[in-house]
Amino acid sequence: MSETSPPLGLLLIGLSGSNSLTLLTSLHAHSTSLTYKNPSPITLSQKSLNGCITQTSSRGVGPSGLKDLYDFKSAESLRVHGWDIFYDEGLGDHLINKNILPYDLTRQVKDHLNQIIPLKGIYSHGFIGDTTANWCKPEEDSVRLMVDTVVDDINSFKEREGCETVVIVYSGSVERDSSVGATLTSLSQLDVPQSQLNVAPSLIYALAASLTNCPFVNTASQNTLSCPLLTNLTLGTDFKCGQTKFKTSVLEYIRQNAWTPLVVASCNHLGNNDILNLSKLPEAFEAKLRKKHDIFGPYCENELDHKVSVLYTPHINDDKRDYVEYTSSCFLGCEWTMVTYTRCSDSVLCAPMIIDAAVLVEFFLRKGVEEERIKKAMEYLFKVPETKGDPGFGSQMRRLRDELDRATKISTLNSPQQQKKLPLPLQKIPRSLKNLRIVEPSSFPLPKYHVPGSPTIITAGLACLDTQLLECDRPTSLESITSFSSLQNIPGGSVSNTSLTLSRLSHGLPDRLLMPPPTFSQIIPLYLTSNDPTGQTLNSLLTYTPKNRNLNTSFSLSSQILGQTSTAILPIYTSEINGDVEEKAKEIIKRGAAIVCVTLGDKGCVVTCGNDERFAKSPGLPPSWAGLTHVEPLTDHIPPSRCNTNGAGDAFLSGFLTASMLRSRVKTSPQVKNSKTPFSLFAKSKQASTPAEVLECHSIWEVLDEKTKRNYSDKAADIERSEDDYLVRALHENGEISLEQACRFATKIAGKHVDMDTRGDGFVNIDELLE
């Protein structure tokens, strides 16, 4: 990264805790190149950031550090501060008294840490074990005012440190789960005292992060992220440190050997403040154990007996010790057993993960990576990630590398330096030049079908933020409670879905460092939002994603007086359409519509077209479609586990409208009757070969005298077209695709949108879909 790039902000909740103090110590030791001694006789001077994959270099063959491979923010660019509810001595003195790091190191960083004064934190009785909180913000008249005080802290820190991105990490004690967060759907619900609403402190921080559009990382095991009001990037839950990472690696090894895991029984014990609080609050302890039990859930190993125990042992302090026995059934039903014993300071394992979490989040946001891809890339950090992919540590690290590579490649394609090398969209051609085609760059082969002129498309209408309830079950009655696995925010409304679909359409796929030509030169969505966090999130999702390279949101409007930007909560269910679809479509045709499209979910679609007289009023439509009706069955069925039908109709409509504009790219042979225009002869006489030169010729042609124009008209009537003529027609007289092809094409476009495996693809190759 450039030394002039803005610093990366990191705000920690629990600044005087072991994890935060260890992190602060490591950064100071690194920046000042401290030399210190461990209890072992080895003198260390360059190892302060070991364990940070974003800050250490690769060694030898195979994966290790990633620092040299990607343009991550450096540790020197981090600006760290945070909140705490305890502060009765300097942080340096507190670190020495905790006795969690080598004394030779802590004595050298004590004075530096003593200069750091935590911000006063949020405390609410009953969410963590009984404790004496002496450094807390006063309870305001309402929860909203408490959130606002944290918002002020964030904004002040951002302005003081000059940070563009600030990542907020909850590193405090584990709270008990709370059911309040999931019921909050409007900020107005926060206008009551905390004593009545009883919002978890971690959620107050998360709401403040959302209002300031800061990413929020939950390293603890409570259900903070279940609140629908959180429209920012949220990641969690519960950090997966060394011992749990190793457990998933071992089970990955067992499964790859085609053995059947039978027992994983682990006992870990330590004596830090987190386990002390857990021992005082059974509800929080249960939340912690539940996350530890769930780490193997996606494997669906029904025979696996997974046992976990956590013991508070004050004597060993932060030195976490763990004993695990693995038993599996292998060949001929014989058993294989392995026992592991691990020992390490818990904060030494957690602190580098906090640094990596902040650096990776900033990297992905800077590269414009979609929220869902960021969550998949960072699964390796959490015991039970929201995306529920393969929990194996090796698999998760491969996903991280894949997303890092993809983000880097897309960023390179979109860089100003690279864009200069890419084919530019065709300039808009005046109406009188519509029979001319200027040869496109040859970086990609010319497709058989194209949209002449690669026009700009304007979409107008509703845009909102869709909060999707993923893996939502179907209610059995009006009173039944619907459950779902996780939340996902995406751009919603017809404008968003249509614009995103059209921006993905291209002729080909990326080839090395070449961007394929888009089907349309520019997509301009027109919509209105409020200047609130929801509106900001919607604009960000539409603007800062790699696939939207030709999406121009600069014409969208934001209003201070609109109120709140709409948010749609979407559990998606299917329902039957009653009646004769074709007859109902014909009724709409009789009322003046040119084309009626009816999508039928997994049954396909029905398209009915008006007669020749109606089509004559819409000259852009293919005349061969007039009077036709086509029923297109769905042939490519998507498994329910991968299916998300939100926006499917908009995607189908985008594909169908594109199909109606597609024309075959047919060169005229020497035997074809002359189709030269007077202007094309004039342009050729001026040796105009580029779009700019042709446009300049057109300006001259407009002011030519009538006699000169008549001379060119006479020449055009006599001269036969030659094979090497550089001017060819953009449209062939019957070059449109058939209605059947259009329906099939639109159905495939909708399928790409519905299938969650392809929904996030940056490019949809329409040439492949038309084959």
UniProtKB/TrEMBL annotation:
Essential cofactor(s): NAD(+)
**Reaction(s) the record says it catalyses:** D-glucose 6-phosphate = 1D-myo-inositol 3-phosphate
Q: Which InterPro entries match?
A: Carboh/pur_kinase_PfkB_CS, Myo-inos-1-P_Synthase, Myo-inos-1-P_Synthase_GAPDH, NAD(P)-bd_dom_sf, Ribokinase-like
The Myo-inositol-1-phosphate synthase GAPDH-like domain, residue ranges: 242-347
An example of a Pfam family matching this protein is NAD_binding_5
Which domain of life, per UniProt? Eukaryota
In its UniProt record, which GO terms are filed under biological process?
inositol biosynthetic process; phospholipid biosynthetic process
**EC number(s) in its UniProt entry?**
5.5.1.4
Q: Which UniProt keywords apply?
A: Inositol biosynthesis
A molecular function (GO) term = kinase activity
Pathway assignment reads: Polyol metabolism; myo-inositol biosynthesis; myo-inositol from D-glucose 6-phosphate: step 1/2
PANTHER family listed in its UniProt record: MYO-INOSITOL-1 PHOSPHATE SYNTHASE
Family label = Belongs to the myo-inositol 1-phosphate synthase family.
State the name under which the record lists this protein.
Answer: inositol-3-phosphate synthase
Per the UniProt record, the source organism is: Triparma strigata
